[in-house]
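SEQUENCE-TO-STRUCTURE ENTRY
===========================
Question of interest: how does this chain fold, as expressed in backbone structure tokens?
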Amino acid sequence: MARPAQPSPATPQRQLTQAGVATFTDEGAGPVTFVCVHGLPGSVRDFRWLAPVLAQGARVIRLELPGFGACPAGQVAPTITAFAAYVAEVITALELERVALVGHSFGAMVAAAAVHRLGGRPVRVALINPIGLTPHPGFEAVRQPRLLRAAHEHRVVGRAVRPLVRRMFEGAGFKGFTPDHIARALAVLAHMQFEGHRGLVTSLPAPVLVAWADDDPVVPPRITAELLGALPAGPRLHFRAGGHNLQKHEALAVGRALLSWAAA
């Protein structure tokens, strides 16, 4: 692993926007603002190792999606479209100018969708361990997300199902999440549709930075290869090892590449 000596100590703050209550961290300073969007489930903690690297030359905002971390779900639907609108509205509310969106895993598609909602605002997008254009094994393992969600939330059946679902998430590396966070994640999975992703990614403004690892246990190389073939050109960070959280395990390499890419 190659990461800073210490993770970011920044704690989330709250701000009321037209999109509802936004929770985020804000640190560093520079001509570019990195807005980091976590995966599913996730929180600002997902970027706690990357933030100190980026903050050496930029402002860094780690944003929580509604229903995750300390951010209330409010009226925001559990869909990529609704999350993307939320991200764009928060960026507008914070009056951010030169923005580089950094999305991890599921958050990569949210970031890609948010770009198209920011109008003429100068913005770039970087994708770290992104989900692809077709379902990955982790998604397929859920099989029937709508049915699983209903069972998880059932007053009686849920007593037996919730521990099983928690262990399923933990087995995939997602630990420390509350039942509400897991329920929200299941709601997102129940609404996931991959058909529209190709149009989102092919129309992104170049250059698009992508970082991935061969040993990613969630998104296999074949899924990443298909996505890379559809994306505009840009820096490619290929790691043989690093798993599904390169922003943690390879924070120094990823952070330095992001700073160089955003400044170009």
Observations:
- The first strand starts at residue 13 and ends at 17.
- The mean pLDDT is 86.
- The two ends are 27 Å apart (CA to CA).
